[in-house]
Amino acid sequence: MSATDTIFALASGAGRGAVAILRVSGSSSGAILAAMAGRLPAPRVAGLRRLRDPGTRETLDQALVLWFPGPRSYTGEDSVELHLHGGPAVIAAVAGALTALGARPAEAGEFTRRAFLNGRMDLTAAEGVADLIAAETEAQRRQALRQANGALAALYGGWAARLTRLLAHQEAAIEFAEDDLPTDLCDRARTGAAGLRGEIEAHLADGGRGERLREGLLVAILGAPNAGKSSLLNALVGREVAIVSARAGTTRDVVEVRLALAGVPITLADTAGLREAGDEIEQEGIRRARSRAEEADLVLTVFAADATPDAETLRWVGPDAMVLANKADLVPAPAMIGGVEALAVSALTGAGLDALRARLTESAARLAGASDAALLTRPRHRAALTEVVAWLGDAETAVMPELASEAFRAALRALGRLTGRVGVEDILDVVFADFCIGK
Ligand SMILES: Nc1nc2c(ncn2[C@@H]2O[C@H](COP(=O)(O)OP(=O)(O)O)[C@@H](O)[C@H]2O)c(=O)[nH]1
Ligand SMILES: [Mg+2]
């Protein structure tokens, strides 16, 4: 696989459609288009052409074709788009012709990888493109679009520029110690390091909102058997997803549904009721319930208003939990359970469900809702920036100018890995692995 090959891929979704878009990128793009379509249209202007088989000259399709001479293209290379009739046979015939003319099918993410390698975007923007394609909700789309448009690239690029300046000052202080440079160069580098470290720390202290929005929230419903967990899940999503029964121990595995609140994708997980009794299968279900609750961003602890709160469920009442007193239609629900305010609901009558939905929406917005700030979105970002912070701390407390210099250099390398500007060979595969073909 060479990075100089001319590549092609279906850029639109697979299957039948009104239009299918084949994308071609690489130095032979123009020649390939000319061989199939004759005259090239003006750059970036659609032209209607007959596409012919290069061997037999048979017409394969009538298509809109676009010609993007590099570097003003998505990849930065000469590129072509063919807007075909969207049938599998048409796509196969044109793909066959492209192969005959020397192009090869692209690998997943190869177009965006080339865009990155040609300096059209940094790594965080490339990740934004992948997230934009995967976005399921409004808030996700906004966050991904901002990142694809270079919001993180600009922020991190600015920090890299400042770090480079700090390093230069520090180096100058070492090199020209004897000369009459300002004597406070070392001090200035230290103050600058402290200022930058503060900004990065503030960026890191975002409560994981960007990462949570990208991943979606996990909300686990937990409680004793028969508290009404499955009924609540069904009532919240408005359909019968989980089996409801008066028999304890009906739900034995984790049942999950997806919904969106405040533009945040949420996985709502119904779980097996917590109790000691039950057979092997139920005990495995309970083990899964606990482990899902441990991973959850939010736990809904469900108690039956007409029963004494059980010790097992009480253990899950805490800062990341919302306490519900279900079956409030049967008896007056207690205002507090386990020392925490309980929301009275009835999965049966629907009472209190609007309030529950509002509370959930509020939590989703607080934990992961859309924000105007450019938020980091991946563990990779967090790890690299945490490293930068540590090196800056080292630079501030270094006992020798040479050590401060080394620390600045290490900080720059960590930041460079984040944006893909230095030493990135090893992480390219990781970043581009989750792309689809054609992007
Ligand atoms: N009266 C009343 N019964 C409910 C309510 N929610 C659930 N139930 C009943 O309680 C029983 C257990 O419900 P289920 O959802 O299976 O509980 P789970 O074991 O916690 O999943 C079923 O007979 C439900 O019909 C409620 O709000 N009010
Ligand atoms: Mg159940």
UniProtKB/TrEMBL annotation:
Q: Which domain of life is it from?
A: Bacteria
Domain TrmE-type G span(s) in chain numbering = 216-365
Residue ranges of the TM segments? none
Q: Where does GTP bind?
A: 226-231, 245-251, 270-273, 326-329
InterPro entries linked to this entry: G_TrmE, GTP-bd, GTP-bd_TrmE_N, GTPase_MnmE, MnmE_dom2, MnmE_helical, P-loop_NTPase, Small_GTP-bd
Location in the cell? Cytoplasm
Q: Name one Pfam family in it.
A: TrmE_N
Q: Does the keyword Protein biosynthesis apply?
A: no
Q: So where does (6S)-5-formyl-5,6,7,8-tetrahydrofolate get bound?
A: 23, 81, 120, 439
Entry annotated with the keyword Lipid biosynthesis? no
**Which residues hold Mg(2+)?**
230, 251
Its Enzyme Commission number(s) read 3.6.-.-
Which keywords are on file for this protein?
Cytoplasm, GTP-binding, Hydrolase, Magnesium, Metal-binding, Nucleotide-binding, Potassium, tRNA processing
- What is the protein's major site of localization? cytoplasm
Report the cofactors. K(+)
- What remark does the entry make about the cofactor? Binds 1 potassium ion per subunit.
Q: Give the protein's function.
A: Exhibits a very high intrinsic GTPase hydrolysis rate. Involved in the addition of a carboxymethylaminomethyl (cmnm) group at the wobble position (U34) of certain tRNAs, forming tRNA-cmnm(5)s(2)U34.
Quaternary assembly: Homodimer. Heterotetramer of two MnmE and two MnmG subunits.
Question: What is stated as this protein's family in its record?
Answer: Belongs to the TRAFAC class TrmE-Era-EngA-EngB-Septin-like GTPase superfamily. TrmE GTPase family.
- Protein name as catalogued: tRNA modification GTPase MnmE
Q: What is the lineage of its organism?
A: Bacteria, Pseudomonadati, Pseudomonadota, Alphaproteobacteria, Acetobacterales
